[in-house]
Specification:
This protein is an alpha+beta fold. The chain is built from five helices and 20 strands. Belongs to the membrane fusion protein (MFP) (TC 8.A.1) family.
C-alpha cells in the first residue's frame, strides 16, 4: 500500500474542510460575530491601535481559496507517432480468364507453383479453327485478285470508280476476318500476365472453358501493400514517401514507405485509406496478414502530464488547468501520444504549473491554495 497518495488525499480533505467549515459557521453565527467585531474595534480604537492591525498578512491564502495539488512540468523534445491498424495485400492479384471458348488439353499446374511472365497456364483445343484460317486466307486471296483487276480497269476507263472502291473495301474485310481468326487461335494459349505464384490450380485437363471462365489465379508478392485507415484529424500529417515501420501479427518488423493516401473519406467512418509498400523479394510476407503501421512524425516539444490532469472547459475543449500565481486558468491542449502513466501534450508554456488534483473544483480566476507534488507522490 502506498503511503504518499493516502497522505495527499487526507491533506486535500483537510484543506477542503478548512475552506468549508469557517464559511458555514460564519453564516450561523453572523449576528454574534458582528457584535464581537464592533466591540473589538471600539476597544482597539480606545487603545490607540490602528484599525488595520487585523488585516491578513502578505502571502496569506485568499478567502475562499480552493486547495489543489500542482506539478511543475517543463517541455521536452518528443517524437510523435501515428499507429494504424490494417492488413497486407498482394501487389497484384489477377484471375486469369479465358477469352475464347474451348476444352482444356494441358496438364494442370498446382497451387503454390511459381510462374514467370508468359508461363503457359492453360491450352485450349483448337477445334475447327485451322479450317477457319484456311477459309479466311482463300477469301483474302480472292478479294486481292478482284481489287487488283478493278484498279487496272478503272485506270483504263473500263469500269466505274465506285466498283474499284467496293473491291478495295471487300479486300479490307477479308484481311480483318483473317486477323480475327488468327487472334482467336492465339487466345487458345492462356499465359501468366506477370511473374508470381499460383493461388489456385489451373483448370483441369478436359474441362471446358467459356469466355470469362477462370483458368487460374496469379498473385505477385514481390512487393506487398499494407492497407490501413487514418482519421481526418491526422491525414494531413502524412505524405507519400514517408517512411513507416510495419509490425506483423507474427512479430516480424519490416521497413517501408507510404505509397498512397486516399482523397475520399469512407462514408461510414470518415477515415482515409493509406497504403504502405514493403519489399518482399523472398515472399515471406503473405497476403491478408494483420499488421500495424507505425509512422513517426518530426520531433516537437511537449509536456508529459498525468492523464488524470486532463479536463474539459465549458465549451467542451480538452485541456488542463494551470496555477497562474494564486488563481486557476484553463488552457486547451493537443495530445501527441500516450505512454505508461501519462500523456504528452502541446499547447502549454515552456514551463507549466499544472493542477493535477482538484482541477475539477475550480474555474478560471478562482483563488487556489496550491501544494507542489511530484510523479512519485502520485504513485
Amino acid at each position: 500500500m502506498r503511503v504518499a497518495p493516502l497522505i495527499l488525499a487526507l491533506g486535500l480533505a483537510a484543506g477542503l474542510a478548512w475552506w468549508f467549515v469557517p464559511h458555514v459557521s460564519g453564516r450561523q453565527d453572523s449576528a454574534g460575530a458582528q457584535d464581537a467585531t464592533a466591540t473589538a474595534e471600539q476597544a482597539t480604537t480606545r487603545a490607540g491601535s490602528p484599525a488595520s492591525a487585523d488585516a491578513p498578512s502578505p502571502g496569506a491564502p485568499s478567502p475562499g481559496a480552493v486547495p489543489v495539488m500542482i506539478m511543475e512540468i517543463s517541455a521536452e523534445p518528443t517524437i510523435d507517432r501515428i499507429t494504424l491498424r490494417g492488413r497486407t495485400e498482394a501487389n497484384r492479384n489477377v484471375v486469369v480468364r479465358a477469352e475464347t471458348p474451348g476444352r482444356v488439353i494441358s496438364e494442370p499446374l498446382r497451387a503454390g507453383t511459381r510462374v514467370d511472365d508468359g508461363t503457359l497456364l492453360c491450352r485450349l483445343e483448337p477445334g475447327a479453327r485451322q479450317a477457319q484460317v484456311a477459309e479466311a486466307e482463300a477469301a483474302l486471296a480472292e478479294a486481292q485478285v478482284e481489287a487488283d483487276a478493278a484498279t487496272q480497269l478503272s485506270q483504263k476507263g473500263f469500269t466505274a470508280e465506285t466498283t474499284r472502291v467496293a473491291r478495295l473495301a471487300a479486300l479490307q474485310r477479308a484481311e480483318a476476318a483473317l486477323d480475327l481468326v488468327r487472334l482467336d487461335i492465339a487466345r487458345l494459349e492462356i499465359r501468366a500476365p506477370f511473374a508470381g505464384i499460383l493461388e489456385s490450380d489451373t483448370a483441369e485437363f478436359g474441362a471446358r472453358l467459356g469466355i470469362g471462365d477462370a483458368c487460374a489465379t496469379v498473385i505477385d508478392l514481390s512487393e506487398v501493400k499494407v492497407t490501413g485507415y487514418v482519421s481526418e484529424q491526422d491525414v494531413d500529417r502524412l505524405s507519400v514517401g514517408q517512411p513507416v515501420t510495419v509490425r506483423l501479427i507474427s512479430g516480424a518488423v519490416h521497413e517501408g514507405a507510404i505509397g498512397f493516401i486516399g482523397s475520399m473519406a469512407d462514408e461510414s467512418t470518415r477515415t482515409y485509406r493509406v497504403e504502405a509498400r514493403l519489399p518482399n523479394a523472398d515472399g515471406s510476407i503473405r497476403d491478408g496478414m494483420t499488421a500495424e503501421i507505425g509512422v513517426e512524425l518530426p520531433a516537437e516539444r511537449a509536456h508529459r502530464i498525468p492523464q488524470a490532469a486532463l479536463t474539459l472547459d465549458d465549451e467542451g475543449r480538452l485541456g488542463v488547468r494551470l496555477a497562474d500565481d494564486s488563481t486557476a486558468r484553463f488552457l486547451p491542449v493537443r495530445i501527441v501520444r500516450e505512454d505508461t502513466g501519462g500523456v504528452w501534450v502541446t499547447g502549454l508554456p515552456e514551463t507549466a504549473r499544472v493542477i493535477v488534483v482538484g482541477q475539477e473544483f475550480v474555474r478560471d480566476g478562482r483563488p487556489i491554495l496550491s501544494t507542489p507534488v511530484s510523479w512519485d507522490d502520485l504513485g
